[in-house]
Amino acid sequence: MLHTPGHSSESVCLLVTDLKRSPEPWFVLTGDTLFVGAVGRPDLPGRARENAAQLYDSLHEKLLTLPDDLEIYPGHFSGSVCGAGLSGKPMTTLGFERRWNPMLTLDRATFVERLSDAPPKPTDMERVLAFNRGHEAVATQ
Fold it and tell me: Is 2-132 CATH 3.60.15.10?
């Protein structure tokens, strides 16, 4: 497990290894940290600039240190409001993202500036955040 704050302070990516195949990681579940062609939004929990800086560090100090052939399975793809410019492709490799993901080629200051200018939050975002924090009961039938 890699702690990858940025989308939220609790964000993690899960490295998966099949020891019958190799001792090296086979793929990583990146959640809302890294998408195909994009990165996660830092503004949903607030503190967009601070979170964007943390996301840059998580990407460059943790994920981008891993091998190019590592498969990436993000938490969302095209149609999600958790990132801008997401591809419809459900998976990628780290090498492909390193080469083609425009956000991964930016210096830290430009990355933070671009991510701080996010589209409006979804209208029910506060309810979703409250639910995720356990402050709202789940309606079941």
Answer: yes
Tokens 């830290």 locate to 108
> Tens digit of pLDDT per residue, the chain (141 long)?
999 999 889 999 999 999 999 999 999 999 999 999 999 989 877 789 999 999 999 999 999 999 999 999 998 876 565 666 667 778 999 999 999 999 999 999 999 999 887 766 667 767 766 776 776 554 444
Name, in order, each residue with C-beta under 8 angstroms of 134's C-beta and a sequence gap of 6 or more. Answer: none
Q: For the chain, what is the total number of helices (H) and then of strands (E)?
A: 4, 7
Instruction: Show me where the domains of the chain are located.
Output: 2-132
- Residue 46 Cα to chain centre, angstroms: 16
Global pTM value: 0.81
- Are 67 and 24 spatial neighbours (Cβ–Cβ below 8 Å)? yes
